[in-house]
Amino acid sequence: MNRNEIIKKLYRYMLCSTIAWDWPDRKCEDDPSNTVYFFSDDYKKEFCKPLEKIRKESKITYYENKITDTQFNFIETKDENIIAFRGSDSKQDWAADFNFFKIKFKENNDFINNVFSNEISEEAYDKYIFNQYAKSEEGFLEGVSSFFKESKLVNFNKIANTEFNFDNFKNHLFLHKGFLTQISSIIKEYNEVINKCKNNNKEIIICGHSLGAGLGILAYLFLLTKENNLKNRTSCYVYGTPKPCSIEVYDYIRKISNNKLNIVNIESDLVSDLPPEGLGYKKPKNDYTITNIKAPYNTKFNHTVFYYLYCFANKVPILFNKK
Known about the structure:
Radius of gyration: 19 Å
Strand content: 15-25%
CATH topology: Rossmann fold
């Protein structure tokens, strides 16, 4: 692909990441909280034309876990199966975002074998996580630790089988507990969608923005390790990307996916720096860096989905870091 074709793809999957915010009965741009981005009806109509085009050419199915408030939309087009994860919009989401505790793999494969292959109680799950946290020696505030330890956000009685091959990475590998909690809560629905994808030869795209980007990366990891036969037709595009894992996980994903993970961030997006490096979350290099520009509305730290779309629509310069 040439440069223009790549940018076209980046824009398309940012549009799909925005559609991840659609409810079954309401489009994301019609949510009253989003009126700030549309200072006239004519502007809104013109700005949202690309969103409408994708909606009209697609079948969109909405999936949700109400307990964890985790959502994704399955967008079926003529040539693609697109799984788009939604970003943060509730107390449950913010709890997940700031649940920085690490699930470490230093001494295991037992975690993978016992948690993802079998039924496990929520109590046993939490106990394992916090035993691992205690070993991590991160020194996080005791009060914050107690809050998350005692929280009951999701029932883990049934989690689908997932196999990992982390032999080369396990000594340095960990996942972000909050993001793992949310993706685990919809693993049944996610596997249902993946089974639909097996019935055709369409390209599979996993995408998302913000929290949705973190979930998208973990969803991509699960697909790569569980559905090896699908990896050659699957790619991942994530935007405004927090850090859902250690740097070794990114290396692992890039290795087994033939470098089809695409991290796209605006150069001044602060969310891409979270969780802080002081907690051990090293920031991966952007594959594509978008130049930020002044928008005619409050951009909220240059992070919102509509600001990303604004940058694409105005054809701002994009730095290609990916070979």
